[in-house]
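Record copied across here:
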Amino acid sequence: MNHVAKKANLAVFVSGTGSNLRALYKRQYDDSTWPVAVTAVVSNKPDCLGAQFAGEAGIPLFAHSPKEFASKEDYENNILSFLKEQNVDYIALAGYMKLIGAVLLNAYPKRIINIHPSLLPAYPGKQAVQDAWDDGASVTGVTVHYVDEGIDTGQVIAQQPVAVAGIDSLDELYTRIHEVEHQFYGDVLGQVVAQA
């Protein structure tokens, strides 16, 4: 009996341009076998380009500054209510510049995933591409990992190296890293969901 497997509902968390959000959203239309559907977006920066894209694309959106809430727990409880309304199965962080706290970690164990622009444990934190460039690293890359309470410390799922040799500027390195991210993140998320 042929039946189409139900796709996993994915919430993408963004704080910036949302380039990975755009790539994931496009993937669900370009690849009918991809077992993921982007069904919600969360942003801590309501005016960021990622949040604007979600609004324009008609993706259900939770866009609020944490400062609007009494505490981090209150903020995350409001996010959690939104995620439950959207029947979210997995969370993908895509340039989300806030640490995930206990409320969401407990609600989505091993189902919150992040992409980071280095080969962790090398170059954690938000300046990873700059740090690799300044360090004269010959290779950097992209890591997809499970999220825990630390900064880029969760269990690594997959990595893709990017050679720095032959790249002439920091801007060019950023471009190359983004190109890899946009394909690799969707690939790895699809594998995680398919194996669940």
